[in-house]
Design goal:
mainly beta; eight-stranded antiparallel beta barrel; three-stranded antiparallel β-sheet; 11 strands; 14% helix; 57% strand
Length: 224
């Protein structure tokens, strides 16, 4: 059994050594957007308001790709909520919202395949994404809520998960990537309460729509 395992390991090593192997590393910059646009004004606005930057690495073995990335960006998000129907019985119309201003790091790990042409390389990738919140400012917006109503128990997650689908093109040392990420976990962890100081009644506000879906467009340069 040991000899069989050793033989398989040797054969695997030989196949890897004989396969076409490539490694590259470099910086990339870009922007995030909820909808893609080819208009110059929209692209400039994206770079100005939703800039993203970081580094990427790519290992290619016989046109199969492993590409991890470290990207840093700032984001501002507004989440609107509908209160429990019992709150409407008091005759008070309430539509609270939460604004999150965050500094984030994302770690996508793409697996895919490339078509190697004479001048350009075309890639298709898919993989998980881990989002880390490095710094945040949470603002509760009490839209039409009287002063006797306070909010508590607003919990924002420091780490969330997603999945991304990526297409890319390489020309010389330049790389262009467009990916669409799907949020797999909520940014705000639990339901929160509106607390009526007058009568002491907590009103539960359900949170079920704080997952984030976003396009990311980046341009990179391969140093290696």
């Amino acid at each position: 059994m040991k000899k069989l395992v050793l033989l398989l390991a040797v054969l695997f090593s030989v196949n890897i050594a004989m396969a076409q192997f490539d490694f590259c590393l470099g910086p990339k910059i870009g922007y995030q957007t909820q909808s893609l646009s080819y208009k110059k004004a929209d692209i400039q606005k994206g770079f100005k308001n939703n800039f993203i930057g970081g580094v990427f690495a790519r290992v290619t073995i016989s046109n199969f790709i492993i590409q991890p990335e470290f990207l840093f960006y700032k984001s501002g998000k507004v989440f609107n909520f509908d209160v429990d129907p019992s709150f409407s019985q008091s005759g008070i119309a309430v539509n609270p919202s939460i604004t999150l201003n965050q500094t984030n790091m994302s770690l996508p790990i793409f697996l895919g395949y490339q078509i190697d042409g004479k001048l350009i390389k075309v890639r298709g990738n898919i993989g998980p994404v881990i989002y880390f919140t490095l710094k945040q400012d949470t603002e509760f917006n009490e839209n039409d809520i009287p002063e006797s109503i306070n909010a508590n128990n607003v919990k924002v997650k420091n780490t969330t998960l997603g999945a991304a689908f990526n297409v890319g093109v390489d020309l010389w040392r330049l790389t262009l990537d467009i990916n669409y990420s799907l949020g797999l976990s909520n940014v705000i962890g639990d339901d929160f309460n509106l607390y009526n100081i007058t009568n002491g009644n907590p009103i539960n506000v359900p949170i079920d729509k704080t997952r984030q879906n976003m396009f990311t467009v980046t341009l990179g340069f391969k140093f290696l």
